[in-house]
Amino acid sequence: MKISVIGGGPGGLYFALLAQKAWPRRDVTVYERNRPDDTFGFGVVFSDQTLDMFKSFDGPSYEMIRRRFAYWGDVDVVYKGRTMRSGGNGFCGCSRVALLHILHDRCRELGVKLQFQREVEELEEFADSDLVVVADGINSRIREKHKDHFQPSVDLRPNKFTWLGSTRPLDAFKYFFRETPEGVILAHCYQYESNQSTWVIETDDATWRNFGFDRKSEPEMLAAVEGVFAEELAGHRLIPNRSLWRNFPTIVNKTWVKQVGKMSAVLVGDAKATAHFSIGSGTKLAMEDAIALFESMRKESSVEKALNTYDTARREEVEKTQHAANVSLAWFEHMRRYWDMDPLQFAFGVMSRSKQITWENLELRDPAFLRDVQQWFAARVRAQGFDIPVDRPPPPMFMPLRLRDLVIENRVVVSPMDQYSAVEGVPTDWHLVHLGSRAIGGAGLVYVEMSCVSPEGRISPGCTGLWNEAQRDAFARIADFCHANSKAKLCMQIGHSGRKGSTQLGWERMDHPLEAGNWPIVSASPIPYYEGISQVPKELSRPEMEKIMREFEKSTQLADAAGFDMLEIHMAHGYLLASFISPLTNTRRDEYGGAIENRMRFPLEVFGACREVWPRQKPLSVRISATDWAPGGLSGPDLMALTRMLKDAGCDLIDCSTGQTVPSQRPVYGRMYQAPYSDWVRNEVGIATMTVGAVTSADQVNTLLASGKADLVALARPHLANPSFTLQASAWYQHAAQHWPRQYLSGKDQALRNAARERAELTELRLRARPASHEVKDAPERAYLSSVFTPGTRV
Ligand SMILES: Cc1cc2nc3c(=O)[nH]c(=O)nc-3n(C[C@H](O)[C@H](O)[C@H](O)COP(=O)(O)OP(=O)(O)OC[C@H]3O[C@@H](n4cnc5c(N)ncnc54)[C@H](O)[C@@H]3O)c2cc1C
Ligand SMILES: Cc1cc2nc3c(=O)[nH]c(=O)nc-3n(C[C@H](O)[C@H](O)[C@H](O)COP(=O)(O)O)c2cc1C
Fold first, then answer.
1. Residue 684 burial class via C-beta count within 10 angstroms: exposed 0-12, middle 13-18, buried 19 and up
2. 294: Cα within 13 Å, side-chain hemisphere
C-alpha cells in the first residue's frame, strides 16, 4: 500500500510516523514545500493531558518531546497594573521547529520518506497512491481546489492578530492587557525555551486602524507594539517572522473524505478544521486527527471504511474543541465589554471564558486564587449593606441580591414552567405542591408559570390565568404558603399568548391548534405559527391593543393583591408582546412596525401601564428572546436598543431567554448556551440580568455569577427532577446559614456531613485523575534546542 502525505506540519508528520511504525512495509512519503529548518511562527503548547496521549501512541517521540519542552503551571492575567496569578494549569511548550525536528527524526528512523522543497499542485499527482493524507494547513490548496466536494465554510473573525517572538523570559503563561488611546490591545505570551517566548498580539479592528497598522511597515509596526508593551518586554525586543496581521478563520468542512479513482484522500489538521489560538489547540487537534485516522485504519478492514469511520467518529470531538475555541475567541472580541470590571472578576472571566474551566475546576487548580475571587464577590455584596462574612464567605450563589426593596436570599431561581394543570385559569393543589416544594427546596426566587391576562390570551386550556378574583385567591393561598414556610420570594409572570394561543397541552402536540374548541387568536401581524396548520391570527387594531393593555394592568393589580413579591412581563418566546418585537412576526406598516423603536412601542406601553400600578418598592422584570435563532430575526443592535428602552422605562431585571419565535429556528444548544446574551445585556447596557438555559449544576451557577455574566441564574428542568437543588448545593458548599424549614432540620446536619465527606472523596479522585506533569528536570536536550532555533529564520 502506498501512502502519500501532503504537508509536513505536525498533523502530516505524526500520521506518517504512526502509519510507518504500524505497517513497516508500506511506502509512506511526506511531501513538504519548505526546507526542514524553515518554519513560520514560534512556539507550540500542549497540556499534560495531550502528552499522556502521545505517550500511549509513540513512546520515543513522546520521550523527546517531554525532554525538550519547557513547563509551567501558572497563568497570569495582567490588567490595569495588577497581576492575578492562577496556578495548577499544567502546560508545556517548545518551538515549532523543534517539534518538527523531533518528528522528522522519528519519521526517518522508522523509514518514512521525507521530500522537502516539493510543492504539491494537484491530488492527481498521487494517482498511484492508495491513500493521500491532505495535511497542507489552514490555506490548504487541495481543499480549495476541491471545494465543491469538501464544502468548506470559513468564518473570518473580526479581531486582528499577529504572531511575534521575543527573547523575554516569562515564568508563566501571560495575558498582558493594555488600554491605549487607540483602544484595548492584548498580548498572549508564553515561553517555550530558555529566552524564547511567543507573543501573539490581538486587538479589534477599530483599534488596529487607530494604530495605523493597516499602513505601517513591519519595522514601524514592531516599534509601535514594543512601545505599548515596553514595560512587559522589560528591554527585550519583539522578533518578527513573516508576522502579518490576520483575521482568524474558523474553518469547517462538510466532508473530510474524497475518492479519486482508486485513491482515497482525507483532510487532516488545519486543512480540515481550525481552532482559535487562544485555546492553544491547533497543533494538538492536528496530531489528534493523525491519531484518530491511524486508529480507524488499524481497526477497519478497508481504507474506505476507515475514512468513513474517521469522518464520523472524530467529528464530535473536533466540533467540541471548535465550540470551546469559538466561545473563547468571542471573549477576546468583546474584551472592551469587561473593561470596567474589578481585576479579580476580569481574571476569573479570562480563565473561565471557554466554559471548560469552571468555579470548581479553578478551586482544584488554585484554591488561593478562588478564595480571592470569593472574598472579592462577598466584599462587593457587603458594600451594598448586607451582613456577609468576608473572611470565609459562601460562594456567589448564596449571596443576596436587592432589586428595589426586595431582598432575594440567594441567586438561584426556579424558572417559570407551565404546568398545564389549571382549571379555568385557576391554579390547583398541583400548583400549591409544585411551587410550595420548590420554595421549601431553598431557591431564592420562585417563578410562577406564565399566567395569562385573559381567557383568549391563554396558550392552552390548562394555563393559569390572572384576570379574576378566584384566580387571585388561589394564588394568594400559594403565596401565603411559600412565605410562611420558606425564605423564597415569589415572582408572577404574566403574558398573552398571541399567535401561539389556543394550542394543545405541553405533553400533547405543543404549539399545535386544539383538536376542538379553538378560540380566535391575535398577533402583531396575521402570520400563522405553522403555515397551513396553525390558525391565522388577527392583526391587532389600536382599540384591541388598548383593551389588552388594560388586561395586563388588571393582572398586575391582582398579582399585588395575591401577595407576589415581584412581577415579570413575558415578552419572549413568540407570544403576543414578543410578536411585536421580532421582525419575523411583525410586518406592520403603522407606528407599531418597522424600526425597533416602533416594534417596542406596544410592549413599552404595556410595561408602562403595569409599572404605573405595580407598587414602587416591588421590582418588575421582563423576559425577552434575545435572539430568534433564525435569519432576519432580532439583530444585536436591536437587542441593545430594546433592553436600553426597558431600562429607561424602569425595568429592574432582564430575564434573557432566546428563540421560540418561529418553528424554523436553529438554536445552538450547549451548556449555559443562553448566558452570552445575558452577559452582553448586563455588561453593555448596565442592567441586572437573569440567565437561564441548560444550567444544571451549582458549579455552573457560581461560574456564571463570579464571571459577571448574570445577577441571577434560573434553572427550569433541573428543578423538575430536584426541587431541593439549592438545599443540596448548600450542603455541598457547607453553607450552614441556608434556611431549612424547621420540619426538615433533622435532615440538614446529615446532608452537611455527607456532603463534606462526598466532596472530600471527589476532590481526592479529581486530584488523582489529573494528568501528572511530564517534565524531566534539567534535560540536556533543552539546551541543544536553543542552538537549533534562531528566531526569524527564513520561511
Ligand atoms: C497565531 C497562532 C498561534 C498559534 N499558537 C498555537 C499554539 O500555541 N499551540 C498550538 O497547538 N497551535 C497553535 N497554533 C496553531 C497551529 O500552528 C496549527 O493549528 C497547526 O500547525 C496545524 O497543523 P497542520 O499539520 O494541520 O498544518 P501546518 O502546521 O500548517 O502544516 C502544513 C504544512 O503543509 C505545508 N504545505 C502547505 N501547502 C503545501 C503544498 N501545496 N505542498 C507541499 N507542502 C505544503 C506547509 O509548508 C506546512 O509545513 C497557532 C496558530 C496561530 C495562527
Ligand atoms: C415544562 C416547561 C414549561 C415552561 N413554561 C414556561 C413558562 O410558562 N414561561 C416561560 O417564560 N418559560 C417557560 N419555560 C421555559 C423555562 O422557563 C426555561 O427558560 C427553559 O426550560 C430553559 O431552561 P432549562 O434548560 O433550565 O430547562 C418552560 C419550560 C418547561 C420545561
1. middle
2. 23
Pairing of strands 2-6, 27-31: parallel
Angstrom distances, CA of residue 179 to CA of 80, 86, 183, 214, 471: 8, 22, 6, 20, 56
- Would you say the C-alpha torsion 635, 639, 641, 646 has a positive or negative sign? positive
Q: What is the mean pLDDT of the chain?
A: 93
415 CA → ligand 2 middle, Å: 6
Task: Tell me the best of 283, 314, 795 to mutate to test the pocket of ligand 1, counting ligand atoms within 8 Å of each CB and taking the most.
Answer: 283
Pairing assessment for the beta strands 43-47 and 91-95 based on DSSP bridges: antiparallel
Least confident of 73-77, 535-539, 713-717: 73-77
CB 671 within 8 A of CB 327: no
575 is catalytic: yes
Q: Which atom of ligand 2 is nearest to the CA of 415?
A: 17
Q: Note the pLDDT of residue 310.
A: 96
Percent of the chain residues topping a pLDDT of 90: 85
* Ligand 1, atom 27, residue with closest C-alpha: 137
Atom of ligand 1 nearest to the CA of 200: 1
Distance in angstroms (rounded) separating the CA atoms of residues 351 and 362: 8
Catalytic: which of 190, 338, 575, 733? 575
284 Cβ inside 6 Å of ligand 1: yes
Torsion of CA 87, 90, 96, 98, to 10 degrees: 120
pLDDT value at residue 786: 37
Cell numbers for 432: 400549591
Q: Is 574 in the pocket of ligand 1 (CB under 6 A)?
A: no
Q: pLDDT for 214-263, tens place per residue?
A: 999 999 999 999 999 999 999 999 999 888 999 999 999 999 999 988 89
C-alpha 713/C-alpha 675 separation (Å) is 9
What is the value of pTM for the model shown? 0.90
Pick the atom of ligand 2 nearest to 692's CA.
Answer: 23
| Nearest alpha carbon, ligand 1 atom 4 | 277
User: Over the stretch 424-477, which tens digit does the pLDDT of each residue have?
Assistant: 999 999 999 999 999 999 999 999 999 999 999 999 999 999 999 999 999 999
CA of 417 relative to ligand 2 center, distance in Å: 5
Residue 424's nearest CA partner among 470, 382, 385 is 470
Q: 224 alpha carbon to ligand 1 midpoint, in Å? A: 27
Q: 40: CA distance to ligand 1 center in Å? A: 8
Angle at 188 between CA 186 and CA 189, to 5 degrees: 130
